[in-house]
Design brief:
With about 150 residues, this protein is mostly helical. Helices cover about 70% and strands about 0% of the residues.
Length: about 150
C-alpha cells in the first residue's frame, strides 16, 4: 500500500504543477472575459465580442515580439517569392523549390578554410588516390597531418 502512495503522489504533483503556469492564450482569455463582463454583454453579443477579442493581435509588446528568421527560413521565403513571380504551379513549382532550396550559398557566405582544414583536405585527397583503408589510412593521415 505504501509503495502505491509514492507514484500516486508524484502523478498528483505533476498534474497540479501544470495548472499553475498560465499561457499567453489563457491570459488573453482572462482579459477578454473581464472586458465582456465589464460591458455587460450576454448571449450572441458576448460570443462575437469574445471571438473578435481572442483573434485580435496581442496587447503586450513582449507577446508581439517577432522572432528573427533562420537562414533556412529566409531561403524558403526567397525561393517561394521567386516561384510566385514566375507563376509556377504543380510539378514545375516543386522542382523549382527543390533546386532553389538545395542551391549553395553565395561564395561570400562560405567561410574560408583554416590551415588545418586545408591540410586535412589535401591529406584526405591523397589517401583516396592511394586507396588506403583501415589502420593503414589512419597511420598515413596521422603522418601526413604532422609533416605538412
Amino acid at each position: 500500500m505504501t509503495m502505491l502512495r509514492v507514484p500516486l503522489l508524484m502523478i498528483g504533483l505533476l498534474l497540479c504543477s501544470q495548472g499553475f503556469a498560465a499561457t499567453a492564450q489563457q491570459d488573453k482569455m482572462t482579459t477578454c472575459n473581464a472586458d465582456a463582463t465589464a460591458k455587460s454583454l450576454k448571449g450572441d453579443e458576448r460570443n462575437t465580442f469574445m471571438s473578435n477579442c481572442l483573434k485580435a493581435a496581442p496587447a503586450t509588446p513582449a507577446a508581439a515580439a517577432v522572432k528573427a528568421m533562420s537562414p533556412q527560413q529566409e531561403k524558403m521565403k526567397t525561393c517561394n517569392a521567386d516561384a510566385a513571380t514566375q507563376s509556377l504551379k504543380g510539378d514545375e513549382r516543386k522542382a523549382f523549390m527543390s533546386n532553389c532550396l538545395k542551391a549553395e550559398p553565395a561564395a561570400t557566405d562560405v567561410k574560408a578554410m583554416t590551415p588545418q582544414q586545408e591540410k586535412m583536405k589535401a591529406c584526405n585527397a591523397y589517401a583516396v588516390t592511394k586507396a588506403l583503408k583501415g589502420d593503414e589510412r589512419k597511420a598515413f593521415m596521422s603522418d601526413c597531418l604532422k609533416n605538412k
